[in-house]
Amino acid sequence: MNSFIFTSSDNINAAHFDSLTTFDDQFNEWFDVVLGNEEELFYLLALLGIDSIQSIELRDSDDFAKLYDYSAANLPELTEQQFDLFYEEWLLETGRESSMDEYG
Q1: CA distances, 81 to each of 32, 74, 85 (Å)
Q2: How much is the pLDDT for 59?
Q3: Do the beta carbons of residue 7 and residue 33 sit within 8 Å?
Q4: How confident is the model at residue 104 (pLDDT cuts 50, 70, 90)?
């Protein structure tokens, strides 16, 4: 399993990802999503309508492998009904089991 950390900023710089400490000092709000692999990340983003994503390898980072920039896209705001449909498709396509952790 891999952790993918999501954050937002008007000023993204590869140096912000040198280490977890540097990252935490730079970004006040962030959350992580545990996925099986990069393919699941791309599938998750595609379900959200994000097909264009740029990845940048972070060779000098102690804690991060890549930076995925999807700033050219907008995350949708889903109604509860839309989220439930999204969630059902996610479970069907990934083979994951429904749980409170998964739903969250």
Answers
A1: 24, 20, 6
A2: 92
A3: no
A4: low
- Tokens representing 56 are 């940048």
- H-helix or E-strand containing 68? strand 66-69
| Rounded Cα gap, residues 27 and 20, in angstroms | 10
* Long-range contacts, 67-71 (Cβ 8 Å, 24+): 67/12, 67/14, 67/17, 68/4, 68/41, 69/12, 70/45, 71/12
∠ CA 95-101-104 to the nearest 5 degrees?
Answer: 100
Sign of CA dihedral 12, 50, 2, 80: positive
Which residues have a Cβ under 8 Å from the Cβ of 75 and sit 6 or more positions away? 48, 50
| Per-residue pLDDT tens digits for 39-68 | 999 999 999 999 889 899 999 999 999 999
Q: What pTM did the predictor assign?
A: 0.83
